[in-house]
Fold this sequence. Notes:
By secondary structure, this protein is an alpha+beta fold. 41% of the residues lie in helices and 15% in strands.
Amino acid sequence: xxxxxxQDGQRFAVLSYExxxxxxxxxxxxxxxxxxxxxxxxxVKLSDLVRVxxxxxxxxxxxxxxDIRVNGGVASHVLSPENSAYNDLDLIFAVDLxxxxxxxxxxxxxxxxxxxxxxxxxxxxxQRISLASLKEAYVHKMVKVTEGDRWSLISLSNSSGxxxxxxxxxxxxxxxxxxxxxxxxxxxxxLLFYDCSNMTMSxxxxxxxxxxxxxxxxxEALYHLRKKLIATRNPEEIRGGGLFKYCHLLVRxxxxxxxxxxxxxxxxxxxxxxxxxxxxxxxxxxxxSYLTNHFIGEEERANRYTYLMILHRVVDESTVCLMGHERRxxxxxxxxxxxxxxxxxxxxASSKQHGVASQGSGGxxxxxxxxxxxxxxxxxxxxxxxYVSSLSQYATNCVCNSTGSSxxxxxxxxxxxxxxxxxxxxx
Length: 427
């Protein structure tokens, strides 16, 4: 899994017609950029957006664009769609950011580009809309890096989680985490085809599009993608160690390319993660943000608990750089989030089951209530949750005069309890 550096001549490959066709489909799909408040939703095609942004950069701000690329999950999907779903739409503009004013020019170019996608009814108000208002309405997040590397990121909001991420890169030493996310597809020839050709693409007439694996060996990285294998180079160089992404790949049934190097890789990842995020508050923010941004939709959300259990196992077994109490604090944090996630899944499943039973009996669907004090506890590797009968249509809370009694379930059995609970949540 820890691979030697490949030769530069192996980094590039020409896409097949089927791959170019998938890329063309992604570039010409309408992507909604959702506005906050009274701002309308912008329906944008990536092919249009990148051309407008490039024009704003070069013609109006004097910033030369060396090339434009698509990377991340979209690039992996284009190359091997059966093994690569994607959330964000990641675009890279290679630009010169050596001048300190360039960052502001880039931000202005992106925000001004959004004005061109306002629907017809709102276009008359363009002159009155400030760039600050556009930023508040459409930008999900902005990042600027100037120390060591030089790049900036502007993420445009999408309510379903499929954000459009525009990255403007001058220097970036580490551009990938694992071989399967190392692909970058150069869009310039495809954009030129859109501008110059009126003919429809076919297997006998399509542009030559080149892809690069910044992992270093294109064919090896593509083999890993198709066989669902995990490999990387120098994981200690990755911010956060690639720990969260590694556990996410395990959830998606990826396997280590070299089993004998598994523990070494996990120790590297854990060490770098705790170097970058040494305090518990930052660890919580980072983990909660990852769960929010990468487990979108009902199917993905159902994998959160499995993901947290895998992360718990890796941190527990492979952390060698922390004092015992520090390691325990992080494990408690993961247990707390896993407990909360499990409880939410139980509520959701019970609500669905209760709704089906109510509809089947012709009754009115009632909201599920577990009453005050309902909680989940973690102990000895197990999660305990209140028993909810699917036969009872109405839930009532019974207040007993006696003290210290356990709450009975509908079958008369007491809810399991244990020492060392990591937290509780009420309905």
